[in-house]
């Protein structure tokens, strides 16, 4: 025990007495480092019974509140609502068909197969009379499934069930002898053991060990039946019928074979014990692990334990031990550590410090001023003076530990962040300056003899080779000559170390290592950076907290674990590996590292981890990669290696999980989709989605990698997206053929068109002169037509007609026939207006021509005093507004009928005018019952002007339709009866025209 005395605060001694009362755990030994998972981590209960790792790598954890599946990322709980027969489940077993069996409290096992749970009820329904109580264990041996019930044993072979009743005893456990092909069953008192061979033959074996109770678990190894019986660990030699019993002093709950020749692991109420079966000795393996109900050893030699009241625990490396406030020291946060003989000097925050004796496994001294000094109180530095004393700086509090273990508190007048000792000087860095005083002077305050220089820094490093001191911190790195105490070098021209320098170390006489919280570490030689290592070179983080050099190894502490760099200056190469949570150091925030006699001490916020450097877990285990599900267009599909998809099933999502429990979820995935990808894509996500794939045959290749080891086995998923109808190869070929056929036809048509074009051009050239002649002839005809229209107008408007009309009007007035005069003037003016209006048009509607005829006939009826009657009839099929005819083609013939046919008659005449459709010709018939043409000529009534009017009309019609025969345009027929003239019939055929 160290002699502890304080020079200033004697009441601290009372604090030490209280400490030894409050921390009895300091009397215990060292403790392995582990991670605990409980209710706060996602488990449904802190009571866990068993762990099974299935063939896909998943962990199945049985609890009293459901079944839990763990994939390294999260816990998924299954209960009776998911198909589990009971929520309290004891053990799990995977058979040769990859089915997982779960033993339950209600005695009805549950099976998990292909993602679904099934209840194995028929077995116990059939044997209901003996199937009472829980089903404890399930095993598959030699193609038989064995079920252990409290009162019965069931064996299922080839769908045949054999039941063995325990009758008056209670069964508790079973174990199988591989060599003898026998199953052994233990009762609760272990006064005898039942064996059943492969032929279902029963045998009873008495056991002559002192009576025991509460038999829990059993196993057979090397012909020995080992089992736990309350506080005793027992073994029975099945071959020689001898045995032993060893009391461990605590309740024993489980037993596990670590698959070596000498030891067995025993789960107890206070931890895990390792029992040597050769010399019957035992030792504590994992202490202070309450109620260990089962132990599971992973393939990389990491350990899992289940507990009856604290969930499950994971020991990434059993060789890594930890000291913290849960076992041996009075605080959890450790900022600095230094080894002094067999003692550990451990500094924390809140102005706390302790000395831990590695030999006695006790805390020998504890310093705590958290209640006296405000602030977080981090320990900034721990330095060894030239006389062997150790100083620990808390900025405003400085403590000294002499070589005898005496602790002294030193009050400081100025904040001191760091300090160093040289053979002649004591140098300290303060808020904005560095002070130097001789080693012989007091360091408790700033005396008049001290020297100072303005320089901002937080830490100091002394290079004894050339008496140079380095000050560093947020403002970068500076070099100072200690002897002359003057500024030497500012490294601000190096961007990497111009700010945020966090630590320094010396690699050899010529190389310094500078750590940064921004850019990793840098090697400095003769004030020049010659190399740097950061994330790009494999460093786990660019945030470096500490560096420790041990020979040719550089131990680098970052905020993401430890990196061990091996430097070979001869071969000029470097190798690096990482340590962290996967190796049992369950906090990645590394505050300090020190190594002595191959023992590595690591200070973290979770405590002090330590281990022998050769005990680093170097087992390389590739992670397991499982495909969780495949969805197409958001619809989940059954897992298979190949998928045939239609053209519209092109949104593909794949969920996968890489299982590496040492990686603690830090798994990198890489994938590529061939033939779309040539290079790998890297991600930490566990989902890949392709939202719109084009038709093709694809292969998705996925791998994963943990922090340690190589890439996993490749998982492949093939899927073929069928093309649409028009994307199919045959259809595309047909389209290509059709395309070329169409192109050929188009080319052929083009050639024909070109050829035809040439012929047309030849014809055009040939007919060019004829066309000019036609144009000339057409112009002549147009001129003739215009002249005919003008001549017709003149005929209608001749002075003789107008003079006669005026005389008629005068005659009406002279005879006092005013009404007739007015009526005559009305018809006459209307007729003149219509003649003038229609003379401007080439074609007028039939209705207009009929109105002109009516006006004309009414006018002459007034003049000749009802000398005749007339009738105008239109065929019902005639649209008089749409069918167009030349203007005033009918009037000359009507006038001729009135003046030359009717007027000479002594009786009343009759004129009938009919409009009929005759195919594409309008047929107009003008019939009168006058004296006829022959009589008229005899009376010399057929004047030259009237004859000219008819001829002009004929010529106009001929010009309108050159295709009609001239003789068919106008027909004049003399009507006779028995040789006597009875009138005249004029037929006009006018080509039909519509409105333009």
Could you explain the architecture of this structure?
- 18% of the residues lie in helices and 42% in strands.
- The model is unreliable at 1-29, 942-946 and 963-967 (pLDDT under 50).
- It is built from 9 helices and 73 strands.
- The chain is elongated.
- α4 runs antiparallel to α5 (818-838) and α6 (846-863) runs parallel beside α7.
- With 996 residues, the protein is of the alpha+beta class.
- A hairpin with a 2-residue loop joins β19 (215-221) and β20.
- Strands 1-30-57-56-55 form a 5-stranded antiparallel β-sheet, with no helix packed on it. It has a 5-stranded mixed β-sheet with strand order 60-66-65-62-63, with no helix packed on it. Strands 68-70-71-73-72 form a 5-stranded mixed β-sheet, with helices on one face.
- It starts with 11 loop residues before the first helix and ends in a 5-residue tail after the last strand.
In short:
This protein is of the alpha+beta class and 996 residues long. 18% of the residues lie in helices and 42% in strands. The protein is built from nine helices and 73 strands.
Q: Which key features would you list for this structure?
A:
single chain, 996 residues, alpha+beta, five-stranded antiparallel β-sheet, five-stranded mixed β-sheet, 9 helices, 73 strands, 18% helix, elongated, disordered N terminus
Question: What's the arrangement of secondary structure elements?
Answer:
Elements: H1 12-22, E1 31-32, E2 35-37, E3 48-53, E4 59-63, E5 66-70, E6 75-78, E7 89-94, E8 100-104, E9 110-113, E10 116-119, H2 122-126, E11 135-141, E12 144-149, E13 152-157, E14 160-165, E15 171-177, E16 182-187, E17 192-196, E18 202-206, E19 215-221, E20 224-229, E21 232-237, E22 242-247, E23 252-256, E24 263-268, E25 271-276, E26 281-287, E27 292-297, E28 303-307, E29 312-315, E30 321-323, E31 336-340, E32 343-347, E33 352-357, E34 362-368, E35 381-384, E36 390-393, E37 395-401, E38 407-416, E39 418-421, E40 425-429, E41 433-438, E42 451-454, E43 459-463, E44 468-473, E45 476-481, E46 486-490, E47 501-506, E48 512-516, E49 520-525, E50 528-533, E51 544-550, E52 553-558, E53 561-568, E54 573-579, E55 592-596, E56 599-604, E57 607-612, E58 624-632, E59 635-637, E60 642-645, E61 652-659, E62 668-674, E63 681-683, E64 687-690, E65 696-705, E66 715-721, H3 729-796, H4 799-814, H5 818-838, E67 844-845, H6 846-863, E68 868-874, E69 884-885, H7 891-902, E70 909-918, E71 921-928, H8 932-938, H9 944-960, ...
Parallel strand pairs: 60-66, 68-70
Antiparallel strand pairs: 1-30, 2-29, 3-4, 4-5, 5-6, 7-8, 8-9, 9-10, 11-12, 12-13, 13-14, 15-16, 16-17, 17-18, 19-20, 20-21, 21-22, 23-24, 24-25, 25-26, 27-28, 28-29, 30-57, 31-32, 32-33, 33-34, 35-36, 36-37, 37-38, 39-40, 40-41, 41-42, 43-44, 44-45, 45-46, 47-48, 48-49, 49-50, 51-52, 52-53, ...
């Amino acid at each position: 025990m160290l002699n502890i005395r304080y020079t200033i605060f004697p009441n601290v001694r009372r604090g030490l007495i209280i400490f030894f009362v409050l921390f009895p755990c300091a009397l215990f030994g060292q403790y392995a480092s582990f991670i605990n998972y409980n209710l706060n981590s996602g488990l449904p209960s802190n009571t866990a019974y068993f762990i099974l790792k299935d063939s896909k790598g998943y962990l199945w954890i049985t609890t009293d509140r459901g079944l839990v599946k763990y994939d390294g990322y999260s816990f998924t709980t299954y209960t009776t609502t998911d198909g589990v027969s009971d929520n309290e489940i004891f053990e799990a077993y995977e058979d040769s068909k990859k089915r997982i069996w779960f033993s339950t409290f209600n005695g009805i096992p549950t099976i998990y197969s292909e993602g679904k749970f099934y209840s194995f009820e028929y077995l116990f329904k059939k044997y209901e009379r003996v199937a009472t109580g829980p089903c404890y264990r399930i095993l598959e041996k030699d193609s038989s499934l064995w079920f252990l019930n409290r009162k019965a044993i069931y064996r299922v072979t080839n769908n045949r069930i054999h039941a063995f009743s325990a009758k008056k005893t209670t069964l508790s456990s079973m174990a199988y002898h591989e060599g003898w092909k026998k199953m052994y069953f233990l009762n609760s008192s272990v006064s005898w053991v039942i064996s059943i061979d492969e032929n279902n033959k029963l045998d009873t074996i008495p056991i002559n060990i002192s009576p025991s109770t509460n038999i829990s678990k059993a196993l057979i190894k090397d012909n020995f039946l080992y089992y736990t019986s309350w506080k005793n660990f027992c073994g029975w030699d099945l071959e020689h019928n001898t045995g032993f019993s060893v009391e461990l002093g605590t309740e024993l709950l489980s037993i596990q074979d670590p698959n070596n020749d000498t030891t067995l692991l025993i789960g107890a109420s206070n931890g895990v014990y390792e029992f040597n079966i050769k010399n019957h000795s035992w030792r504590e393996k994992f202490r202070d692990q309450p109620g260990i109900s089962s132990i599971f050893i992973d393939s990389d030699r990491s350990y899992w334990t289940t507990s009856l009241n604290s969930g499950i625990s994971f020991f990434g490396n059993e060789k890594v031990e930890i000291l913290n406030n849960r076992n041996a020291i009075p605080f959890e946060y450790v900022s600095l550590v230094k080894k002094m003989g067999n003692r550990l000097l451990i500094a924390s925050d809140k102005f706390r410090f302790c000395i831990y004796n590695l030999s006695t496994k006790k805390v020998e001294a504890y310093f705590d001023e958290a209640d006296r000094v405000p602030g977080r109180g981090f320990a900034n530095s721990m330095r060894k003076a030239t006389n062997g004393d150790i100083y620990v700086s808390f900025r405003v509090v400085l403590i000294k530990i002499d070589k005898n273990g005496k602790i002294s508190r030193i009050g400081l007048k100025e904040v001191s962040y760091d300090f160093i000792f040289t053979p002649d000087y004591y140098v300290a860095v303060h808020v904005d300056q560095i002070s130097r005083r001789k080693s012989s002077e007091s360091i408790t305050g700033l005396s008049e003899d001290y020297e100072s220089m303005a320089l901002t820094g937080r830490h100091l490093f002394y290079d004894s080779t050339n008496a140079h001191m380095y000050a560093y911190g947020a403002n970068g790195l500076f070099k100072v000559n200690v002897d002359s105490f003057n500024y030497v070098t500012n490294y601000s021209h190096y961007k990497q170390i111009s700010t945020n320098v966090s630590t320094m170390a010396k690699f050899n006489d010529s190389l310094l290592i500078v750590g940064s919280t921004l850019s990793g570490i840098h090697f400095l030689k003769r004030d020049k950076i010659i190399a740097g290592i950061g994330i790009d070179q494999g460093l786990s983080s660019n945030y470096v907290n500490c560096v420790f050099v041990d020979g040719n190894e550089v131990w680098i502490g970052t905020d993401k674990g430890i990196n061990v760099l091996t430097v070979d200056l001869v071969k000029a190469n470097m190798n690096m590996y990482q340590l962290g949570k996967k190796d049992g150091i369950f906090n990645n925030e590394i505050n300090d590292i020190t190594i002595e006699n191959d023992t590595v001490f690591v200070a973290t916020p979770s405590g002090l981890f330590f281990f022998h450097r050769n005990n680093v877990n170097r087992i390389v285990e590739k992670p397991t990669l499982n495909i969780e599900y495949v969805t197409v267009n958001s619809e989940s599909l059954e897992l298979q290696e190949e998928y045939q998809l239609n053209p519209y099933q092109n949104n593909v999502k794949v969920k996968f999980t890489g299982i590496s429990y040492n990686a603690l979820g830090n798994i990198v995935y890489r994938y590529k989709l061939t033939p779309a990808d040539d290079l790998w894509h890297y991600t930490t996500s566990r989902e890949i989605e392709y939202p719109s794939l084009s038709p093709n045959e694809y292969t998705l290749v996925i791998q994963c990698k943990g922090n340690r080891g190589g890439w996993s086995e490749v998982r492949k998923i093939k899927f073929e997206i069928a093309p649409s109808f028009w994307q199919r190869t045959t259809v595309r070929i047909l389209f290509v053929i059709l395309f070329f056929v169409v192109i050929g036809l188009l080319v052929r048509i083009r050639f024909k068109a070109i050829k035809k074009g040439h012929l047309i051009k030849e014809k055009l050239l040939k007919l060019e002169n004829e066309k000019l002649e036609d144009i000339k002839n057409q112009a002549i005809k147009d001129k003739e037509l215009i002249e005919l229209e003008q001549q017709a107008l003149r005929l209608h408007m001749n002075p003789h007609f107008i003079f006669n009309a005026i005389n008629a009007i005068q005659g009406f007035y002279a005879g006092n026939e005013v009404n007739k005069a007015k009526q005559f003037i009305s018809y006459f003016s209307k007729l003149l207006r219509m003649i003038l209006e229609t003379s401007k048009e080439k074609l007028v509607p039939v209705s207009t021509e009929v109105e002109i005829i009516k006006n004309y006939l009414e006018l002459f009826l007034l003049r000749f005093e009802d000398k005749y009657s007339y009738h105008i009839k239109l065929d019902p099929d005639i649209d008089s507004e749409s069918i167009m005819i030349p203007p005033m083609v009918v009037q000359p013939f009507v006038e001729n009928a009135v003046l030359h046919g009717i007027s000479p008659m002594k009786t009343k005449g009759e004129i009938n005018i009919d409009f009929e459709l005759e195919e594409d010709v309008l047929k107009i018939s003008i019939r009168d019952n006058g004296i006829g043409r022959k009589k008229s000529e005899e009376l010399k009534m057929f004047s030259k002007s009237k004859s000219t009017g008819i001829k002009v009309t004929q010529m106009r019609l001929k010009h309108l339709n050159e295709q009609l025969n001239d003789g068919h345009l106008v027909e004049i027929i003399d009507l006779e009866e028995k040789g006597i003239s009875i009138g005249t019939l004029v037929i006009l055929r006018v080509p039909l025209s519509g409105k333009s």
